[in-house]
Amino acid sequence: MNVYGMRAELGDQGAVKMWHMTKDGALTALCNRDLDPAAPVDHDSAWTHTKQPLCHTCGALYLRQVPYESMISG
User: Fold this and answer.
1) Which phi and psi angles does 51 have, rounded to 5°?
2) Could you give the angle at the alpha carbon of 56 between the alpha carbons of 54 and 51, nearest 5°?
3) Which pLDDT tens digit goes with each residue over 6-54?
4) What is the extent of the structural domain holding 59?
5) DSSP class of residue 22?
6) CA 19 to chain centre
7) Distance (Å, rounded) from C-alpha 64 to C-alpha 41?
8) Which residue, among 58, 49, 65, 62, has the nearest Cα to 29 in the 3D structure?
9) Alpha carbon of 39 to those of 10, 63, 64: distances in Å?
10) What is the pLDDT of residue 69?
11) Which of 41, 54, 64, 66 has the smallest number of CB atoms closer than 10 Å to its CB?
12) Contact between residue 20 and residue 35 where contact means Cβ atoms under 8 Å apart
């Protein structure tokens, strides 16, 4: 079973520039961007609740990989 999570892409002064989706703790996002191991992480359920920008490509790939039922069952 795959475990998804979010990892931030950092911008100026270490601020969150954009959130990406990762699988199984990888440091490479679903969009193939390599991310900093020290960057903030979050649970995949936070994808729809963050105020920072989200990677469109990661979101599209994530939605195609995760069954809809698991997303609404909590």
Assistant:
1) -95, -15
2) 20
3) 999 999 888 999 999 999 999 999 999 999 999 999 999 898 888 999 9
4) 4-72
5) E
6) 5
7) 21
8) 58
9) 7, 23, 25
10) 52
11) 64
12) yes
